[in-house]
Amino acid sequence: MTVESNLVADRYLGPDAAQRSVARDIYEGVAGLPIISPHGHVDPRLLADPEATFGTPAELFLIPDHYILRMLHSQGVALEALGVRPRNGGSAGAEVQVDHRRAWQLFADNIFLFRATPSGMWLADELRTVFGIDEPLSSENAGAVYDAVSEKLSRPEFRPRALFERFGIETLCTTDDAADSLQAHRAMRESGWSGDVRPTFRPDGVVNVLATGWRDSINTLSAVVGRDITRTSALVSALEERRAFFTSMGAVATDHAAETAYVESLGEAEADAIMTRALKGQATADDARRFGGHMLMELARMSVEDGLVMQIHVGSLRDHSPAFFERFGANMGADIPIASEFTRNLRPLLERFGNDASLRLILFTLDETTYARELAPLAGYYPALRIGPPWWFHDSLNGMSRYLDQVIETAGLYNTSGFNDDTRAFCSIPIRHDVWRRASSNWLAGLVLRGIVSRSDAHTMAHEMAYDLAKRAYRL
Amino acid sequence: MTVESNLVADRYLGPDAAQRSVARDIYEGVAGLPIISPHGHVDPRLLADPEATFGTPAELFLIPDHYILRMLHSQGVALEALGVRPRNGGSAGAEVQVDHRRAWQLFADNIFLFRATPSGMWLADELRTVFGIDEPLSSENAGAVYDAVSEKLSRPEFRPRALFERFGIETLCTTDDAADSLQAHRAMRESGWSGDVRPTFRPDGVVNVLATGWRDSINTLSAVVGRDITRTSALVSALEERRAFFTSMGAVATDHAAETAYVESLGEAEADAIMTRALKGQATADDARRFGGHMLMELARMSVEDGLVMQIHVGSLRDHSPAFFERFGANMGADIPIASEFTRNLRPLLERFGNDASLRLILFTLDETTYARELAPLAGYYPALRIGPPWWFHDSLNGMSRYLDQVIETAGLYNTSGFNDDTRAFCSIPIRHDVWRRASSNWLAGLVLRGIVSRSDAHTMAHEMAYDLAKRAYRL
Amino acid sequence: MTVESNLVADRYLGPDAAQRSVARDIYEGVAGLPIISPHGHVDPRLLADPEATFGTPAELFLIPDHYILRMLHSQGVALEALGVRPRNGGSAGAEVQVDHRRAWQLFADNIFLFRATPSGMWLADELRTVFGIDEPLSSENAGAVYDAVSEKLSRPEFRPRALFERFGIETLCTTDDAADSLQAHRAMRESGWSGDVRPTFRPDGVVNVLATGWRDSINTLSAVVGRDITRTSALVSALEERRAFFTSMGAVATDHAAETAYVESLGEAEADAIMTRALKGQATADDARRFGGHMLMELARMSVEDGLVMQIHVGSLRDHSPAFFERFGANMGADIPIASEFTRNLRPLLERFGNDASLRLILFTLDETTYARELAPLAGYYPALRIGPPWWFHDSLNGMSRYLDQVIETAGLYNTSGFNDDTRAFCSIPIRHDVWRRASSNWLAGLVLRGIVSRSDAHTMAHEMAYDLAKRAYRL
Fold first, then answer.
1. Hey, is the C-beta of A472 within 8 angstroms of any chain B C-beta?
2. pLDDT single digits (tens) C356-405
3. pTM exceeding 0.95
4. Which of C121, C320, C366, C443 to mutate to test the interface with B (most CBs of B within 10 A)?
5. Partner of A453 for a Cys bridge, out of A457, B52, B94, C218, CB 3.0 to 4.6 A?
6. Beta strands in C290-446 (DSSP E)
């Protein structure tokens, strides 16, 4: 092999030759393991319809990817020129590029912006390992790459179900609204397809009284459960009912996004007073914080009772730019992290349920300062707690390195929960797991060479990190 | 030597061959230096009685070690099954395992939980270097290891005083309550034994008005000084009197745990009003914070006057789980760090005493974000300040690496205070100092190979880090 | 070459041989590039007068360097003994050492304090590369080094303008008070000298109503613009007028120091009420915070209009020790960082101007926890934002490593702004840029060896980091 091809084969391993050699050996033991994807945002309709396709290369790689859109926006590229359609249909401002080959060219012209970023690494790996395109994307080859990917995407073996199997996905969990009919999941089951795809119960839309469209979400949930939801007890029982339905459809977990980890048990009267204000459109930020904290307590209680694994994702201030939200909507790259606190905020919940292993609570943070200071000490004590993998901006090579460096010594490996890809970008699933497996192997090789773990233990730990921890953490 | 034995000999050094070679050379220059242990929690009675022993292997390694207990608890192992006796005698819940060999087996069955943790490293090193057991502890060899350690512990050369000498401990400081009679220290001195063991003055129990048993602690202190303590001035003079006694018994330092670094000088009337409320059991959290801050100011003034080195340990929220505290008491692994602040909180104290080198104030943090942001800049300016070594969860290989990376450039090495083992686990003392010496040597080798310090300077710095800095910082 | 000289030639590159080899190759491609110094504190009078000299070695290296003074102070060395003159002329306390050769000896006697610090590295590099003195400064050679440096400083080729040219400085920006006449800049221009030296508009003295001497600064500004400034609108128009003047004198940027990133648009009445209180000497801390936040909004608006690049430096609590400030004044080493917040604080400004690329706002932080959590996500979204280089205490080898590790993956390289030396120490300019170029090359080599970027891309990125990014960020 040439030096360059060695670099590709050993990519993401550290430069030290001795460590790299051990890392490669560890990696080879886990590179081909099935993928457990217990948290993500793949649209289940892609897998419900055997004939579904990914559309154009721009629709696969560019238009739905908030990591890529934000970076291009930050350097002055108009999203419309990339083929993104504003919510209002593009009545004002730039014209929407409908020629996706031209949108792709614009993307390729700016590909240098992604140097040394996860997006750049994922794209290169996807083109290489999924589509067989070894040459890095550039202005010069943009059209040819577009055409080659287009051609592949038109083939049956590049349909979602075919790739699901080729990627070796053992289990894939989607994320679904509390009121969702799970029609796509039902269709999958009824189609006789063997893929293990499970819904995840995410009630943020009805739990956060200041969420956009909260009133509509409540109405939808009311309609689904067949009764009005005007009091907290009705909301709670509706959620319980929906959880039972999700469980019957294979769900193993719930998911909750919260700006902070604040929890509090409100009395019924107080909770209902907030609900009443919210229904009148008069809820304050403090109402939202307290009601959300109250619901987290209720949801933890439900998890103790029904065994659904509870996930809390903390610390994203959503839609930082109102103008951008107005034009393009949510999840387009303008969510910005804030500092988080767990030790005091979560204490009421942990006092009540933390020593009870029938609760399984997985915590995710965007504030890395909490890894060593709060999350690892908490998870290293409370039986109910596990720490989720490096999340979002930290799902990166350096993010993984910081996570392993700061979490494991205090929490221990066995209080973590393996890897989540957390993606809606289907073709990035095997790539993201591969980055994690490489990063894990490299970290473990460092432990071996420092005499901290034996080589045999390192192989065991790599297997845990690639497969077992996630499977056990999510009770699969 | 085999590859494996090389890994053991060079353990904790980095994988790069050139750096490792320099690191080994530096390490060899300090590996055998005497141990200065200026801050720790060894029970002085172990050394007061020449016939004292460590008990069973479980009593030595398992039952008193909160690092180990918390990790086992986090994975659902009942502490009682490990031989831990609840405070209430175990009336409810699991039965206490009194067969320590079976408790040890349970520990060994779960030893995988400690992979890549400091506890796992310390245990392996203690078994190897103190007890001559090279094979890692496992389910399979648990009984044999137990028996081998038991046999050794029964020998005279494994009694605490014998190990004190074998370990090369030059000075050991214990931590003692303000009202302590220091009877064990007196007995040591009177026994004619040459070991240098010194008490440390820790008045937390009477300074924190919300501490468990504060009223009893005040009463005990009153009894010891022979006068009622109902006003702040009486508390202050009692503390001054006890400091003088501790000094006469060899103490060189005081120690103070505080949730935050807040300090404030209260007027006498205000301080007394809080004291009065506290005596009635009516003190608030704010009272405790302000009174504690006031006492830190008073204690700093006393240090200026009597020359005792002042240590402040900031940022642990003690006894996070009330149910666990109720059952097992304090210091059992359920203390969780919180974010800390020094720049503003400590300012009143530093305004008054910070430029006066007759105060020696050593700061410890559990919030690593304060290393580069606050502690290093403060210690790099104020003559009174030194930064304590990486503490508690951060007394680990990665913790040391982060500390050296983030502290030294701004504070300089000479505003740090060497290493503390901070342990009650006697056999871990030489191990923890050895980890520090290896980590220091590895860090210094990295500086040499980057051309930042000369090899000769690196040897000098390693000696400082292993020995001199601690000795000077604590005015020994 | 000997091992030692190799270490010097490859200094600051990592120890791995393969990475070092690639790093050296990358470094060689940028080592000799011209220096863009868009933010710093060089006194323009040094360059205005062709005959200006640097004075004695103590005046060059020691007396004006707050990094060095703070460290010596922290270890009990009196500043007066180093030749520093107190503001009150030294009426009380230690006598001022007027023999600079003896001050230098004292500095050299304490040079060990600077081991492994940026100050130590800069000094060694300056002596070696600027003055040709290879032997490290020591007690023993202090006098000889002093004499050798003195002799060089007396030569024409060591005058500021000569060194400016020898250092290859393409552009140097100074920092200047809003009311400054820019006489030195004018003199430079009129002298026909070709050096590109530009002023930077820094109005902190009139914007921060609690700044020392605020009233005097307002009076001075009033005098300069020829009208009384008693209302906010008058202050705003005065600033606009001065910005126009600075622009006419070549300024490309403004600079703003703020304790926090708080911004807020006050109504005119409210702003004027604060101004009125301030003029009466009755402004509160909250007044200062809000008025300062209001002025940042106004200054951002002005930048949108006049195109001056806006720099905000956040998070230094100035003059932490009042006694020290009283004796020696500002900028003497007693400024201490505090935790910072950008996501919420800056939001009003970013809502208004953040998506507008005609604003160029460069943010600097002393709180590294904000790199990955706030600054990189913000700059990776908002077209108006760029992240400044590692600042002050973090302008160090480890600081750069942490910065690159935590910023680039999320912000991308192209949302950073290259390097600033931010120094008043003229001879350290090429050294600091060299450290950055070496650190960049080493980081890039790591990316190459991990297969993350190609070698060709690494060369391009190194060039950007050394030169282009700064030039474009500052619209030069």
1. no
2. 999 999 999 999 999 999 999 999 999 999 999 999 999 999 999 999 99
3. yes
4. C320
5. A457
6. 309-314, 316-317, 336-337, 361-365, 385-387
* 3-class state of residue A169 by DSSP: strand
B 447-466 → C contacts, CB under 8 A: 447-454, 457, 460-461
The neighbour count for residue B6, using CB atoms within 10 Å, is 12
Structural domain spans, chain A: 3-52+159-473, 54-155
The top-level CATH class assigned to B54-158 is: mainly alpha
Taken as a whole, chain C contains a residue count of 476
Of C351, C447, C460, the CB nearest to A321: C351
Confirm or reject contact between A378 and chain B (CB < 8 A): yes
Nearest chain B CA: its distance from A432 CA (Å): 24
The pLDDT value given to residue B1: 42
Provide DSSP, C452-475: SS-HHHHHHHHHIIIIIHHHHHTT
**Minimal CA separation from B175 to chain A, in Å:** 24
Q: Find out whether A60 and A194 touch, Cβ atoms under 8 Å.
A: no
* Dist CA B139 CA B162 (whole Å): 31
Question: Does domain C3-52+159-473 correspond to CATH entry 3.20.20.140?
Answer: yes
- Name the H helices within C49-182: 57, 66-74, 100-109, 118-125, 142-153, 160-166
Token couple for A472 = 């056990």
Q: pLDDT for B357-396, tens place per residue?
A: 999 999 999 999 999 999 999 999 999 999 999 999 999 9
The per-residue pLDDT for range A271-283, each reduced to its tens digit, is: 999 999 999 999 9
**Complex-level ipTM:** 0.97
Looking at residue B208, its amino acid is N
Nearest-CA distance A73 → chain C (Å): 6
CB-based contact B225:B244 (threshold 8 Å) = no
Count Cα neighbours of A398 within 13 Å in the Cβ-side half-sphere: 20
Question: Quick one: closest CA in B to C439, which residue?
Answer: B450
Of B338, B367, B393, the CB nearest to A410: B393
Token pair belonging to B255: 């120690």
Q: Give the separation between CA C419 and CA B5, rounded to whole angstroms.
A: 46
CB-closest option in B117, B333, B366 to A412: B117
- Residue A209, φ and ψ in degrees, nearest 5: -70, -10
* CB contact B330 to C (< 8 Å): no
Angle at the Cα of A249 from the Cα atoms of A246 and A252, rounded to 5 degrees:
65
Which tokens hold the place of B13? 């050094």
Best mutation target among A73, A74, A340 (most C Cβ atoms within 10 Å) is: A74
Cα nearest neighbour of C13 on chain B: B450
List chain C residues with pLDDT less than 50: 1
Residue carrying structure tokens 């926890």? C369
User: For residues B173 and B36, what is the distance between their CA atoms, to the nearest angstrom?
Assistant: 9
Q: How far is C1 from chain A (nearest CA, A)?
A: 24
User: Domain B3-52+160-473 maps to which CATH number in 3.20.20.140, 3.30.230.10, 3.30.70.260, 3.40.50.150?
Assistant: 3.20.20.140
Q: Check if A298 contacts C (Cβ < 8 Å).
A: no
Buried b (16+ CB within 10 A) or exposed e, B305-342: ebebbbbbbbbbbebbbeebbebbeeebbbbbbbbbbb
Measured at the alpha carbon of residue C316, what is the angle toward residues C314 and C318, in degrees to the nearest 5?
135
Query: How many Å lie between the alpha carbon of B168 and the closest alpha carbon of chain A?
Result: 25
- Residues 6+ positions from A429 with CB-CB distance below 8 Å: A35, A37, A40, A42, A167, A169, A172, A421, A423
Q: Does domain A54-155 have CATH number 1.20.58.100?
A: no
